Amino acid sequence: MAKSVKIVNENMEIEWSDDIPGIQSHKSTIPLEQLSSSPNSLRRLREGQKPITWNSGYLNRQMPKLRFDYNQYINDSEILHQVTSGIRAWGIVFLTSVPETEDVVENIAGRIGTVRMTFYGKTWNVKSVHEAKNVAYTDRYLGLHQDLLYMENPPGIQILHCLKNSCKGGHSLFSDAFRAAAQLPAHDFNILSKGQVAYHYQKDGEHFLHSHPVLEVGSSDQTDTGGVRVPLAVNYSPPFQAPFFMAPRDVNKRKLVYSLGKFAQKSEEPQNVFKYKLRPGECVIFNNRRILHGREAFESQKGERWLKGCYLDTDVFTSRSRVVYDSVVNMGEGPNRIRRMSYGRSASVL
Amino acid sequence: MAKSVKIVNENMEIEWSDDIPGIQSHKSTIPLEQLSSSPNSLRRLREGQKPITWNSGYLNRQMPKLRFDYNQYINDSEILHQVTSGIRAWGIVFLTSVPETEDVVENIAGRIGTVRMTFYGKTWNVKSVHEAKNVAYTDRYLGLHQDLLYMENPPGIQILHCLKNSCKGGHSLFSDAFRAAAQLPAHDFNILSKGQVAYHYQKDGEHFLHSHPVLEVGSSDQTDTGGVRVPLAVNYSPPFQAPFFMAPRDVNKRKLVYSLGKFAQKSEEPQNVFKYKLRPGECVIFNNRRILHGREAFESQKGERWLKGCYLDTDVFTSRSRVVYDSVVNMGEGPNRIRRMSYGRSASVL
């Protein structure tokens, strides 16, 4: 029960009594601004970073401001803020002068938060090996795709650290799926936001199977900085597509296949594909729910190619992103703006 | 391109040529049964386990078949299948004769799959400590709730292993939120499936904030074994509720608060709450998207209470659940039923 309510500066202070058995009193301080906000408008207000969609030439011109020094990223919260903002705006950033050691990708992820463990492990290797059993370990071309879409919760962020890349070829390929979606006729956009595509992985004691709409849209529209409608997330991964589609009754399956083809075409148009050969000591961090990635063929007879990767969950990225925004933009006042009864660090209170 | 298509036994065999640059040919074997199935009907067919909603008395009578020996769970895939089926049907099972060592909860989780890491760590302690700074570490009553709803992707499974429980009191409380939802008038069910409630956690360098509908429903109805409509998942966690609601324009906020109150009342009705004092060497595994959990007060002056917990993602549980279903029910033929071009264990093929 509220014992007293006062307006102090820009805050409402409520003193509570006996609302939790055994705890006599505690105080809540709620900024007045917040009382007139829903979480969504709050999010827009404080984290209002619209996606900036890009084609290859446009991203290339932004490269100077999308490249960050590893040491600054680790030590300077202003740079961390620029990195998280860059990912939210462009979907992709690069780190340079990264130590060329095997475990450093965990530091890069850890600066943002807890690594997303999967059955691939905490981190994993993308290496060319001779007499490879699987196409991932060959030197062949691999088309644009996203990772782990056969899960209900694919990782939001992918990190790839380049340790070796001395072979001829092997350029990384990136395409902004928000751009491809924005360039589709409204009719196709609509079909791809309703019809679902199934993805699966069945192997070595695992059987993942999940279907997603190709374009995920919210109840209200999201637009890029140019005011063009873009989805909240994209789900496109031909290598793991299951041999069936899912369409609700009002979506024709043939039309779904046709619209998916148009989307594929758009995302693969040469002017939409950013081609970049990672150098040892470079690292790319990108939004796995937005950016399609792939690889050009390379000559594995001479030289080596070795990337080390890991994932972060969207939840983890968003949390850190808010905290650095508050500490940098609001100069430290942020994290204490909502003071609540403390339930501690134990997730379970059973 | 397809080079040849043949029907062999109950399968369609397709030989492909040149569809992947550099790989001349590979073969797909697709069961005919599967061609006439969508992933959803497939899921129903092969994993068709409807939820069985319960109240306290009903669950209590099922206890003999919901308790499994730890060693059998670890070593016998038939028992693992019964455990995963039990969780899908009842939302909750118990293990007995669990070694009373600190790290065994990781083995219990690992039998199903990769542990869900969170900022609480891989595993965490629920312990009573004197002069606790937080209410979680006190000996007080804690109401029914679910964990980590301030995330977009709360863990699907929670595991709690009891190491010590010698204090007076401290019974665990469980309530089937599907039952509470099924008992609501259709009007309230409808409001709770549309209106969203926000949850947050802002502390120690983290700021999680997410809103969910209280009752998550799919495009098609899910019913329990009695044919009553139940949600796909529930989101209810008063301790972490943010000080604002979210309702779309057609849901009145006052009505949302009122319907939420009715849901709370239903889930807390004494006949709906299963009360159980965990003994050292016992472990409870439950669906964190369905089962509400809580704790009665206990006397911490004498004795000790120590639970060790961890989480699993829904994706991980579902994958293992399918695999053991196939190996037990289909006697091993399952995992090879869909043979595909192998893309290996590396998640990324960049």
Keywords summarizing the entry:
alpha+beta; Double-stranded beta-helix; 22 strands; homodimer; oxidoreductase (chains A, B); 350 residues; metal-binding (chains A, B); Trimethyllysine dioxygenase, mitochondrial (chains A, B); four-stranded antiparallel beta sheet
Provide a concise account of the structure shown.
Chain A has 350 residues and is of the alpha+beta class. Chain A has ten helices and 22 strands.
Write structural notes for this entry:
The structure is a homodimer of 350-residue chains. Chain A has 350 residues and is an alpha+beta fold. Chain A has 10 helices and 22 strands. The first copy, chain A, is globular, with a radius of gyration of 23 Å. The first copy, chain A, starts with a strand and ends in a 21-residue tail after the last helix. At the A-B interface, strand 3, helix 2, strand 6, strand 11 and strand 12 of A face strand 3, helix 2, strand 6, strand 11 and strand 12 of B.
